[in-house]
From TrEMBL, chain A:
Protein's UniProt keywords contain Hydrolase: no
Residue span, 2Fe-2S ferredoxin-type domain: 1-77
Keyword Iron: yes
The protein's Enzyme Commission number: 1.2.99.2
InterPro entries: 2Fe-2S-bd (IPR002888), 2Fe-2S-bd_dom_sf (IPR036884), 2Fe-2S_ferredoxin-like_sf (IPR036010), 2Fe-2S_ferredoxin-type (IPR001041), 2Fe2S_fd_BS (IPR006058), Aldehyde_Oxdr_Iron-Sulfur (IPR052914), Beta-grasp_dom_sf (IPR012675)
One Gene Ontology term of the molecular function aspect: metal ion binding
Descriptive protein name: Carbon monoxide dehydrogenase small chain
Domain of life where this protein originates: Bacteria
Protein's gene: cutS
Sorted UniProt keywords: 2Fe-2S, Iron, Iron-sulfur, Metal-binding, Oxidoreductase
A matching Pfam family: Fer2_2
Matches recorded under Gene3D superfamilies: 3.10.20.30, [2Fe-2S]-binding domain
From TrEMBL, chain B:
Domain of life: Bacteria
PROSITE patterns reported for this sequence: FAD_PCMH
Protein name, entry field: 4-hydroxybenzoyl-CoA reductase subunit beta
PANTHER family linked to this entry: XANTHINE DEHYDROGENASE SUBUNIT C-RELATED (PTHR42659:SF2)
Gene that encodes the chain: hcrB
Species the sequence originates in: Jannaschia rubra
Automatic annotation (TrEMBL), chain C:
Any one Pfam family match given in the protein's UniProt record, by short name: Ald_Xan_dh_C
Top-level taxon of the source organism: Bacteria
UniProt keyword terms in alphabetical order: Oxidoreductase
EC number, as in UniProt: 1.17.1.4
Alphabetized PANTHER family for the sequence: ALDEHYDE OXIDOREDUCTASE MOLYBDENUM-BINDING SUBUNIT PAOC, XANTHINE DEHYDROGENASE
SMART domains from the UniProt entry: Ald_Xan_dh_C
One of the record's GO molecular function terms: xanthine dehydrogenase activity
Biological classification of the source: Bacteria, Pseudomonadati, Pseudomonadota, Alphaproteobacteria, Rhodobacterales
Name of protein: Xanthine dehydrogenase molybdenum-binding subunit
Region Disordered, annotated ranges: 145-165
Organism field: Jannaschia rubra
Domain Aldehyde oxidase/xanthine dehydrogenase a/b hammerhead, first and last residues per copy: 38-142
């Protein structure tokens, strides 16, 4: 069946079996292999993409359900020579080793920072009615949907904090 | 995944007596890939207008398509129904909560290893084939409410909190709308573990309603094998109101221990009017666990549930 | 030209310290980083040729003999091209460095989940549905039991010196305990995958593999083709941890299917298949006996291990590998016992042997410390031997004492031996624990080619892989340092069997072995430059693209008029037997244990490690972080559960096989003892560090749980039920 997908600002007509997940459409039909398949069951987060501003597991949605949704994949976030601050922070802090979970980590962290900015609480937030802060424990909890077997977790936390601080500094400087 | 026809409902009526309903897809697609679910028609309801949370008779009416994230982050829920917010936030991951819906979460299927493995017998998946969990690995399994045919647990956190909050489920069918209290929504396995809820074939969950915020303090405590991103071994949703140093009323629901979000009115009765002492809590735990039965790998849930219940009650009855 | 070195003698020249570029050992960012963070690094299943077909395995639902395979429904599906049941299909992956095919044949089923056919279709969706539709009839056949029962004790794996029984009898303090560790899965994030494409009789295979020169022979032998007609590409590997050491069923099946269909075929394992059809670490039972005098000095050590594997597998988890030399003790008995089982194949999982052997031994050492009333750090200090006490040979270097002292200081170790259960914060009971880290060090044969161009760029080529370990980074740094080039002027090409055979990634040999080959190749290039300059190589300084000698500084382009190429070739030699080589470290952990539920949270964790010359402080640290996190999993959550009735892996997904998530891991700190140079290991004086971080890490946590609660868990992992059982009601 035909579906029009909007990915990283470009539209793609995909003619695929209705059983095709968004993840498999990206990898097998569109050549966008930056989005990884780690478990295919929503248990690892390697396939995380951003759909209408929210992080989702692309393995657990069908491509045919996604027409009209703005999808951002890792390929839409920055490229070598022109990395976003978060990607650059992952490089400097060694927030990866094998790199396979990394695109999912970065897509997830990008949207996670938006969730914090919107004041969404997490399960480790003491006061549900207060503001969300970006402590190590908050970052770790909010990033727990992205497994990393090389176990770069401490570096991932550092990279996210670093990028968030830089973004905040830039915002302050702009104000 | 066996082939299916895909259609999309844009009106609620199109989703009644339609194909297998898909909303967030986080559980259904998971099971379709394993061959556990094999629908030949899928009806996508994501474009239905069921995504709002509105105030309703002093409580809330939560559209069936409200995502777990939106529900957890809703300012009213965070303020007045924190047990629900905490339960939601303790479940799954940020990504999954963005996809998973209120209606879908209620209908989540068990994580029983054998249910998910199509080469194992399973009365829930294949009625009459037997129960491989009996005599097998049972770390995830029920100590309450099971039968010789099935000891699978319901995996939801959200539904446990809703159970404690006396939520109701709004259902649309070919004969119109009906409302079923959550306390009656889930069925115990008995000899038909494949039939899990009151929902009739062709019906659609359209909303969950919460009554006005209950008095007292609320908490959700989840005990699991990892610090995050793991299903509950035991969870307790607790709401306790104190009056003059005594428990005025308590609402308690339990996850990870039974085929449905477990609630036992006798436990609450035993607490009402009592002083919050260790003896009171132990008496309540005795009632809760009077028919508890372990199956080897889950024997530990019996003392764990007792201890967790006591700690939750201590927490909710101690000013601080 | 080829520069060849056999490590027959210590190399104390420390040549790398004479170099001037100043990039080696620094915390340089990985050159492959920008590709990885932008999703542009291509892994095995990501360069899909036009017209590629998708293959999905049919799994055996029980053990026995395949009587019939009903694939009529599958073949009737639109888009199904073939169902492969070729006799060459592998039973299980090859063991690391096997260099030949493992057991083959899809009719005899030795474990539940064994791949027994490959369904090939035009789309993945069709292949997956078709594979599930295949009906499999399996009859009983004579098989090993599904759980370990009878153990063999091969003579060459038993050893004994002195009289341990007497030592135990005469000791002031003893420990004699049984411990168990469960089976583990490597669970790399990238599932095993392969894409096969034939061009006439030549096969190109893109795979997710760790040791390409062996994999080429294993795959060729499996297929019955000449290795010369086979090229394997593995430029990026999404984690291995041992599970991708040997060629595996997906590669062989993809190659056969591609041959049958005349089209390229890709096969990626499902996560469930990764759990049941790649390697597991064997479960272990271990008996540890310790005899010590009143001061805690060991007089006797006994370490027996019981492990399992499939029939016809020579590998068995080398649990006691480091027991002969870690601590003193003149009376010593080591036993090794293997049961044959019908379970998923056992093979290497990160740090085979020490990962579970040292972990258990270090729990026993903690028990000894408590029994003797001695601070656990001090107990270890008192038992560091002067020489390998079993072989009576010197250590190449023994950094355990330094690691213990530095680690204790960095962590803030409390040596006052607080009573178990004495520190509380609300519901949480707080405790600290520590353990030593030990891992044997090896060197493997490796070759690499280095080409220096007159424009001041260099190319490094070897079939070495980077499985996340940092090969791209450290080989860049070695070449940049030796040739005096900024790192961005060095290109490293890896993961291609058309390139000179490196060591591959496994057993922590990759960096030191392949790195030494690059070092030697660079030495060859330096000799050519020195010759052109008319000076001795040792008088030549290379820096920032300039050749400096005799107070002359000359751009490289003026020294050479064309590319200069050299091949480096390192081989292990007499130093591997003449001295005991190992890497050393110490772990410290602080845990909080919930007094209600028994849940354990690791609050703080620190490791200090010594591994000779550290080649990249950033990637070495990350390797240690990763190892210690594996240790957290081993201590608290990871257990491959086998069904007692048919041996199948019950928790075969990432929801129920609990590898640590971000929230399980604190901001671990790592200290590297940068100054160590081990002359016996290789010309770089470097040692492997990829596995050291797991070798005992779990013990620090289990020991901390004991100090927090008084509960001694001897059956890993220390899940909450086991801890809770020992807590007050």
């Amino acid at each position: 069946m035909r579906t029009t997908l909007t990915i990283n600002g470009a539209t793609h007509d995909v003619d695929a079996d209705p059983r095709t997940t968004l993840l498999d459409a990206l990898r097998n039909h569109l050549g966008l292999t930056g989005t990884k398949k780690g478990c295919d069951h929503g248990q690892c987060g390697a396939c995380t993409v951003i759909a209408d501003g929210r992080r989702i597991n692309s393995c657990l949605t069908l491509a045919c359900m996604m027409d009209g949704v703005e999808i951002t994949t890792i390929e839409g976030l920055g490229e070598p020579g022109d990395l976003l601050p978060l990607q650059d922070a992952f490089v400097r802090h060694d927030g990866y080793q094998c790199g396979y979970c990394t695109p999912g980590q970065i897509c997830s962290a990008t949207a996670m920072l938006d969730e914090v900015a919107q004041g969404w609480p997490s399960v480790v937030t003491d006061d549900l009615t207060g503001d969300a802060s970006l402590t190590d424990a908050e970052i770790a909890e909010r990033m727990s949907g992205n497994l990393c077997r090389c176990a770069a977790y401490p570096n991932i936390v550092d990279a996210i904090k670093d990028a968030a601080d830089r973004t905040a500094d830039q915002r302050e400087a702009a104000e | 995944m066996t082939p299916f026809d895909y259609d999309r409902a844009t009106e609620v009526t199109q989703a009644i007596d339609a194909g297998r309903i898909i909303a967030g897809g986080t559980n259904l697609l998971d099971l379709m890939k394993l061959g556990v679910e094999t629908p030949d028609r899928l009806t996508d309801i994501n474009r239905l207008d069921l995504k709002t949370i509105e105030e309703h008779q002093g409580g809330l009416r939560i559209g069936a398509l409200v995502s777990n994230s939106d529900l957890a982050a809703d300012a009213r829920v965070r303020r007045d129904w924190p047990v629900l917010s905490r339960a939601l936030l303790s479940g799954a991951s940020g990504q999954l909560r963005n996809m998973a819906t209120t209606g879908g979460n209620l209908l989540q299927r068990t994580r029983c290893y054998y249910f998910q493995d199509v080469s194992s017998p399973c009365n829930k998946r294949d009625p009459g084939s037997g129960c491989a969990a009996m005599g097998g690995a049972t770390r995830l399994h029920a100590i309450l409410g099971g039968s010789e045919h099935c000891i699978a647990t319901h995996p939801s956190d959200m539904a446990v909190a809703m159970q404690a909050l006396d939520a109701s489920v709004e259902i649309e069918g070919r004969d119109g709308a009906r409302t079923v209290p959550l306390s009656r929504f889930y069925l115990l396995p008995g000899d038909r573990p494949d039939i899990e809820t009151e929902l009739e074939p062709g019906e659609l969950i359209t909303a969950v309603t919460l009554p006005p915020p209950p008095p007292g303090r609320q908490t959700y405590r989840k005990v699991r094998d990892r610090a995050s991103y793991a299903f509950a071994l035991v969870s307790v949703a607790g709401i306790v109101a104190m009056e003059d140093g005594r428990i005025a009323q308590a609402a308690l629901a339990f996850g990870g221990v039974a085929p449905r979000p477990w609630r036992d009115p006798e436990v609450e009765t035993a607490l009402a009017g009592r002083e919050p002492t260790a003896e009171t809590f132990d008496a309540a735990a005795d009632i809760l666990l009077r028919d508890a039965e372990g199956h080897g790998g889950n024997d530990f849930k019996i003392p764990l549930l007792r201890r967790t219940l006591r700690a939750v009650l201590t927490d909710l009855t101690t000013e601080g | 030209m080829t520069i060849h070195t056999r490590m027959d003698d210590a190399d104390r020249r420390n040549r790398l310290d004479d170099m001037a570029q100043g990039v080696l050992s620094t915390a340089m960012d990985r050159p492959d980083g920008p590709l990885k963070v932008s999703g542009r690094a291509p892994y095995a299943h990501e360069v899909q040729p036009e017209g590629m077909l998708h293959g999905v395995f049919v799994r055996a639902p029980r053990i026995g003999r395949v009587v019939s395979l009903d694939d009529a429904a599958a073949r009737a599906m639109d888009g199904v091209e073939t169902v492969v049941t070729d006799d060459r299909l592998l039973r299980n992956p090859a063991q690391g460095t096997a260099n030949e095919a493992p057991v083959q044949g899809p009719r005899e089923v030795f474990y539940v989940g064994q791949p027994i056919a490959l369904v090939v279709a035009r789309t993945f969706e069709t292949a997956r549905a078709a594979a599930l539709s295949v009906g499999v009839e399996i009859a009983d056949a004579e098989r090993a039991p599904v759980a370990p029962q009878d153990y063999d004790s091969p003579d060459k794996k038993q050893s004994s010196q002195g009289d341990l029984d007497a030592a135990m009898r005469d000791a002031a303090v003893t420990v004699d305990r049984m411990y168990t560790t469960p089976a583990h899965s490597s669970a790399p994030m990238e599932p095993h995958a392969a894409i096969a494409e034939w061009d006439g009789d030549r096969l190109t295979l893109r795979g997710s593999l760790q040791m390409l020169k062996f994999n080429r022979n294993e795959l060729a032998d499996s297929l019955g083709i000449d290795p010369k007609n086979l090229r394997i590409l593995s430029p990026y590997v999404g984690g291995g941890f041992g599970s991708k050491l040997g060629v595996a069923p997906e590669a062989v099946a993809a190659a056969i299917a591609a041959q049958e269909t005349g089209r390229p075929v890709g096969v990626a394992l499902s996560r469930q298949q990764v759990f049941e059809a790649t390697m597991r670490r064997s479960e272990t039972r271990q008996r540890v006996r310790l005899a010590a005098d009143a001061e805690g000095r060991l007089t006797g050590i006994g370490h027996d291990a019981w492990v399992s594997n499939l029939p016809d597998e020579s590998y068995s988890e080398p649990v006691t590998q480091a027991t002969p030399f870690t601590y003193r003790g003149e009376n010593r008995v080591i036993g090794h016992h293997v049961a044959r089982v019908s379970r998923t194949c056992a093979g290497s999982v990160r740090a085979p042997g020490e990962a579970v052997g040292i972990t258990v031994f270090e729990i026993a050492m903690d028990e000894l410390a408590h029994a003797a009333g001695i601070d656990p750090v001090e107990l270890r200090r008192r038992n560091i031997p002067d020489r390998d006490p079993t072989k009576d040979i010197p250590f190449s270097s023994n950094m355990l004492a330094q690691a213990l002292d530095a680690g204790a200081a960095a962590f803030g170790w409390d040596d006052s031996r607080p009573a178990p259960g004495s520190r509380r914060e609300g519901e949480w009971m707080i405790g600290q624990g520590m353990a030593s880290a030990v891992r044997v060090n090896n060197l493997a044969e490796a070759k690499a080619r280095v080409t220096l161009n007159p424009d001041g760029t260099a190319l490094v080529e070897t079939d070495m892989t980077d499985i996340g370990t940092g090969s791209y980074a450290i080989l860049t740094q070695i070449a940049a340092e030796m040739l005096g080039l900024p790192p961005e002027r060095v290109e490293v090409r890896l993961g291609d069997t058309d390139l000179p055979p490196g060591s591959g990634s496994g057993g922590s040999v990759g960096a030191s072995s392949s790195g030494s080959a690059v070092f030697l190749a660079c030495q060859g290039v330096r000799e050519r430059l020195a010759e052109a300059m008319g000076v001795a190589e040792t008088d030549l300084t290379l820096k920032d693209g300039q050749a400096i000698a005799d107070n002359r500084s000359t751009p490289l382009g003026d020294v050479i008029d064309g590319p200069v190429e050299a091949l480096g070739h390192i081989e292990p030699g007499k130093t591997s037997k003449a001295v005991r080589q190992a890497t050393w470290g110490a772990y410290f952990a602080e845990v909080a244990v919930n007094s209600v539920t028994g849940e354990t949270r690791v609050r703080r964790m620190h490791g200090t490690f010594a591994a000779g010359r550290i080649l990249n402080a950033k990637t070495a640290r990350s390797q240690c972080l990763g190892g210690m996190t594996f240790g957290i999993g081993m201590a608290l959550t990871e257990e491959l559960m086998h069904d007692a009735r048919d041996g199948h892996v019950v928790n075969r997904d990432l929801a129920e096989y609990h590898i640590p998530v971000n929230a399980d891991v604190p901001q671990i700190t790592v200290e590297l003892l940068m100054e160590e140079r081990d002359p016996w290991t290789n010309p770089m004086q470097a040692k492997g560090i990829g596995e050291l971080g797991i070798c005992g890490a779990a013990a620090a946590i289990v020991n901390a749980i004991h100090q927090a609660t008084g509960v001694r868990v001897r059956d890993l992992p220390a899940t909450l039920d086991k801890v809770m059982a020992g807590l007050e009601d």
